[in-house]
TrEMBL record:
Highest taxon above the source species: Bacteria
Keyword annotations from UniProtKB, A to Z: Signal
Natural source organism: Tsukamurella tyrosinosolvens
Occurrences of domain DUF7373 (ranges): 40-211, 224-373
Signal peptide stretch: 1-19
Protein's name in the database: Uncharacterized protein
Length: 375
């Protein structure tokens, strides 16, 4: 079951498209049609970049079990204690322990029988991280059922009475960072197996990590190799002036935001995807033009995992190589319809999702023109 209005490879876009123009010329609406300048980040945006930097250390759930490959919710920064709170009424616990920002990934099995949520919380000191881990264990009120095999991290059973699945939690501090992992499965033993392996892997991935401070913080840029400049600019900023999906990602992290992580990782490796930029659309950099075409076809083929396809494989007028689908975001006839479009040009691929087909078409047209100038 999809839990978000944001799909793996693109953002759901609010607002209305510009009026369509008559004729057969390409129609990008009022969106930018050339590579855009990417301004230096302000203080709030720099925190998002720091959260992205932390996110590069988050574990990949399929490394715990390949079946945990399907999208199950939000992937990205957690910029406030309120939206980072892992359990009810735990935001004050994060705040009093120096919470700064975090990162989250949630994956599940294709039959929805198992799920794993991984959250990383960045605090201001190692002492605060240790006390945060201790306080969260106390707040969980779980029954300790054992420890992880390698790192001997306590595992607690936090299953709600009457719930259809078992939920087990493991929490560990590493330096000034806290890892909080929850595994859901049909049996306690299976959930314990998953969360125990996951916390050991996550602790290992945090080894040697230091939050960006001082000179390292100044090295955090909003763009890399111009990949963000090749995206279409968002015309409806959030209340913070930017979306949490801000900056760029590695291919490894982007695979965690696709409908099927295992398939995406394999395809990214095969097509040489090494960098992903985020704007109102998402832009992927592949190895070659033919790799980009193959990547576009793969991404378009994955849309079926998001919901029932209502309209299949149609193109944007005057945009060669474009592929669109309309799918239903939910199982009822009244569920929201979303249009997802992809286009490849050169070694790049653009992906976008919007609630209005005209809007998705205009953004894709703009992306096609922008990518014509990409290097």
């Amino acid at each position: 079951m999809l839990l978000m209005l944001v799909t793996a490879c693109s953002a759901a876009i609010p607002g209305n498209p510009s009026a369509s123009t008559a004729g057969t010329s390409i129609n990008p609406g009022s969106y930018n049609t050339a590579p855009r300048p990417v301004l230096p980040p302000n203080d709030a945006q720099r925190l998002v970049l720091a959260a992205n930097y932390l996110g590069e250390r988050i574990l990949s759930a399929p490394d715990v079990d390949p079946s945990l490959t399907r999208s199950a919710g939000y992937l990205g920064p957690l910029m406030s204690a309120d939206n980072a709170a892992p359990i009810s009424n735990s935001a004050p616990i994060l705040r009093r322990n120096g919470y700064r920002y975090g990162y989250k990934s949630v994956r599940q099995t294709g039959d929805y029988s198992e799920m794993m949520s991984t959250q990383l919380f960045q605090t201001d000191t190692p002492d605060h991280a240790k006390s945060l881990a201790d306080d969260l264990r106390t707040a969980d009120s779980g029954v300790r059922v054992g420890d992880s095999a390698d790192r001997r991290v306590p595992i607690t059973d936090t299953t709600i009475p009457g719930a259809g699945s078992r939920s087990l939690v493991a929490i560990s501090s590493v330096g000034s960072t806290v890892a909080y992992i929850t595994a859901f499965a049909r049996t306690t033993g299976r959930a314990q197996e998953l969360v125990g392996k996951a916390i050991d892997l996550q602790v290992d991935r945090l080894g040697g990590y230091h939050a960006p401070e001082g000179e390292l913080a100044t090295m955090l840029t909003a763009d890399r190799d111009q990949i963000v400049s090749y995206t279409v600019q968002n015309q409806t900023p959030s209340e913070y002036g930017f979306y949490a999906e801000y900056g760029y990602r590695s291919a490894r992290i982007q695979a965690l935001d696709e409908p099927d992580t295992v398939a995406a990782s394999s395809t990214f490796d095969r097509t040489g995807v090494d960098l992903v930029g985020m704007g109102i659309n998402t832009v992927y950099r592949a190895r070659t033009t033919s790799d980009a075409d193959a990547l576009r076809d793969f991404l378009a083929g994955q849309v079926r995992l998001n919901g029932a396809l209502i309209r299949k494989r149609f193109s944007v007028d005057q945009v060669p190589g474009s592929v669109c689908h309309v799918y239903r975001l939910g199982e009822t006839a009244s569920a929201i319809l979303m249009t997802t479009c992809f286009v490849s040009r050169g070694r790049y691929v653009s992906a976008v999702e919007a609630p209005q087909t005209d809007q998705a078409h205009q953004i894709t047209a703009a992306a096609y023109l922008i990518l014509g100038e990409a290097r």
